[in-house]
Amino acid sequence: MGRVEGKVVLIAGGARNIGEASARMLVAEGAKVVIGDLLDDEGKALAADLGEDVARYVHLDVTSEEDWAAAVDVAVTEFGKLDVLFNNAGIFNGAPVQHFKREQWQNMIDICLTGPFLGIKAATNALIAAGGGSIINTSSIEGLRGTPWAHGYIAAKWGLRGLSKSVALELAPHGIRVNSLHPGRISTPATDAMPEGMIQIPLGRPGRPEEVATFVVFLASDESSFATGAEFVVDGGTVQQVPMNL
């Protein structure tokens, strides 16, 4: 208990799944959280369940600079500072490349890459004012490889991986660490609807949101004080597989 005692964390995409699990675990370990999402009912319910002394909900469209500024302001105004930014909002769509519409492509880039960039831009001065901190960006195992049909998603997640590295170098002198998380298949209503056998996982099962949240707590805490510009893969061994033609 108390691994992130006194820290204030802003979570984009915090209302459900990995975001919700992270919010709950961070609070259990002593943090205060600002939950940002478009899912207002779920986000408000989560904040109420966690308690008004440790949680706030803000409506956050990650493509809006105004929403980002407001979310950072809630952290600083309500809890006095901002120590950690967790960029966890994202969407997925896919199609064969010749049918992949420009609007689909742009939507993926806007939410999964431009959104985190805007969050980093909005949060940096508050993190510097707090004396340093941590930025955690949710990429994906698709930010480490290529997969048919998922072109916009893969481009965004590779881009977010690279953005994490460049910002890590720029902000290191301010004591701000920047790392990327690369989950594989995590059990959510969307992934649970996929056909069995569609994704092969060496450990034999999907991960749980809480299993990613443990990495979020680690990266938010001082336990990871010498880790920056790094990738943390949480995928049950999926990206380690090498197809064999025997």
UniProtKB/TrEMBL annotation:
Q: Does the keyword field hold Lipid metabolism?
A: yes
| Keyword Hydrolase listed | no
The signal peptide stretch is none
Q: Which UniProt keywords apply?
A: Lipid metabolism, NAD, Oxidoreductase, Steroid metabolism
Among Gene3D superfamilies, the record links this protein to: NAD(P)-binding Rossmann-like Domain
Report the superkingdom from the record: Bacteria
A Gene Ontology MF term for this entry?
Answer: oxidoreductase activity
Q: Which GO terms describe its biological process?
A: steroid metabolic process
InterPro entries reported for this sequence: NAD(P)-bd_dom_sf, SDR_fam
Q: PANTHER family annotated for this entry?
A: 3-OXOACYL-(ACYL-CARRIER-PROTEIN) REDUCTASE (AFU_ORTHOLOGUE AFUA_6G11210) (PTHR43180), NAD(P)-BINDING ROSSMANN-FOLD SUPERFAMILY PROTEIN (PTHR43180:SF28)
| Protein family (similarity comment) | Belongs to the short-chain dehydrogenases/reductases (SDR) family.
Entry protein name? SDR family oxidoreductase
Q: Which organism is it from?
A: Nocardioides humilatus
